[in-house]
Design goal:
Layout lengths: L9 H31 L3 H10 L2 H16 L2 H15 L1 H8 L5 H29 L4 H33 L3 H18 L15 H14 L1 H30 L5 H29 L1 H20 L4 H29 L5 H29 L4 H17 L5 H32 L1
Helix pairs in contact: 1-6, 1-7, 1-8, 2-6, 3-6, 3-9, 3-14, 4-6, 4-8, 6-13, 6-14, 7-11, 7-13, 9-10, 9-14, 10-14, 10-15, 11-12, 11-13, 12-13, 12-15
GO cellular component, one term: plasma membrane
Organism: Micromonospora musae
GO molecular function: transmembrane transporter activity
């Protein structure tokens, strides 16, 4: 029976449900947190502090967090992180009910939620390949479903729900998000336990973190997979920084229309996640990744030149489709080829590179729009994406992908063949 014919294990359904519920809570908070901050202050810098606080854990602790995940039981790490986030949200909910919310409190909550997200996301990324026995086809199917649910919940259902719940009371969206984390924790705790990765020689946490980062930078395929979101974030944040201004001044789009414009991108993301497995199978994962990168760059170029809202919406939908497919194919490939004992560190290193790149994109977009024109950041972003496509095309080629998958399969077979020998040795010793 081929891997395409095999079914996803029952445990995946619980993991998918847990992440879907959690993504709904994230979408609620994505809309509610800045609106809550607006009830406390109108100072743009104070609002920026709250917005930036959630990204700081990845910048400060990304690789170290990955090293810790590689030391800990991944299922336990996930449910403890979600339980802690559920309990944490009781603090601002109480403060909101008592009318004592403040910017420092909201910033601290955003930071700690981000820290919990770092551990949960890294552990989930490392747990999934163990659950699916590193089967590339199953990983693509699983990540397609996970990505689709995340986009639907955090991009479509969550934000409107957050705004509606806030109208019922400032504490209501906080309590709803806490409930989503609590349900996710219960579901994750019911998942099957996985054997821990083979323990390494005892060494310091910093040395282990450095080893994980070095593993990414020494491997051209993994480095190519990491450069895609890092350079992409510079480009996309440059676009995002000026998109509202561009839509209003150049396309004549009002506030309601801008929401529809963002919905077009999310719709494309759902489509891209849905067809990612087909693209990978039809073109090969490496070629598919190169094609989606080119599509993103050309779509942003189309957005920059868009004469009206309809062309702009179509361009964003096409860009969203490219991003959606990429965010299925790239993590699935990484999960299939990285050794289990390094998975947390490799995943967190890649995510940290992407997060560190984002502020540069925001600064670039603002500077180019101020110095030249509001369309200039969009043209610059398109050029950056197309240049990145050319640079990473050979790094993530089909040939490299196939070689990495063969090496991973050989490692896995070797580990499985040596397991009976270790069991026999242990029995003789006993």
């Amino acid at each position: 029976m081929t891997s395409d014919a095999r079914k996803l294990p029952t445990g995946f359904g619980r993991l998918w449900t847990a992440q879907t519920v959690s993504s709904l809570g994230d979408g609620v908070m994505h809309a509610a947190l800045p609106l809550l901050a607006l009830t406390v202050t109108r100072d743009p810098m104070a609002l920026a502090v709250v917005a930036a606080a959630g990204t700081l854990p990845w910048l400060l602790f990304g690789v170290l967090g990955g090293a810790l995940v590689d030391r800990w039981d991944r299922r336990r790490t996930m449910w403890i992180a979600d339980t802690a986030r559920a309990a944490l949200l009781a603090i601002p909910a109480t403060a909101a009910a008592l009318d004592v919310l403040s910017v420092p409190l909201l910033a601290a909550v955003a930071f700690l939620l981000g820290l919990g997200g770092l551990f949960f996301d890294t552990a989930a990324t490392a747990y999934l390949p163990d659950l699916l026995r590193r089967d590339p086809a199953l990983l693509e199917r699983a990540n397609s479903r996970l990505r689709g649910a995340q986009t639907a919940m955090s991009g479509f259902a969550g934000p409107p729900a957050g705004s509606a719940l806030l109208a019922l009371g400032r504490a209501v969206p906080l309590l709803a998000d806490a409930l989503s984390f609590a349900l996710s924790a219960l579901l994750v705790r019911s998942l099957p336990a996985m054997s821990r990765p083979v323990p390494e020689v005892r060494e310091s946490l910093l040395r282990q973190a450095r080893a994980g980062a070095s593993y990414v930078f020494r491997d051209r395929l993994l480095l190519g997979l990491a450069l895609r979101p890092a350079v992409g974030n510079v480009a996309f944040l440059a676009v995002e920084t000026v998109l509202a201004l561009f839509a209003h001044d150049r396309l004549g789009i009002d506030t309601y229309g801008f929401g529809l414009l963002l919905t077009a991108e999310a719709t494309g993301g759902l489509l891209g996640a849905g067809i990612a497995t087909f693209l990978g199978r039809r073109l090969g994962t490496g070629t598919a990744l190169t094609c989606t990168a080119a599509v993103e760059g050309l779509a942003i170029l189309g957005l920059a030149a868009a004469p009206n809202p309809y062309v702009a919406g179509l361009a964003l939908a096409v860009c969203g489709a490219g991003m959606g497919a990429t965010m299925v194919l790239a993590p699935s490939l990484r999960q299939a080829i990285v050794p289990a004992h390094l998975m947390g560190r490799v995943a967190s290193t890649s995510r940290m590179l992407a997060m560190c790149a984002a502020p540069f994109g925001a600064f670039l977009g603002g500077w180019l729009a101020t110095t030249y024109d509001v369309r200039t950041p969009l043209y610059a972003a398109a050029g950056l994406l197309l240049a990145m496509t050319a640079v990473t095309a050979t790094m993530t080629s089909n040939r490299r992908v196939e070689a990495a998958l063969r090496d991973s399969s050989d490692r896995q077979r070797s580990a499985e063949n040596s397991r009976p020998a270790r069991v026999a040795d242990a029995a003789v010793s006993a």
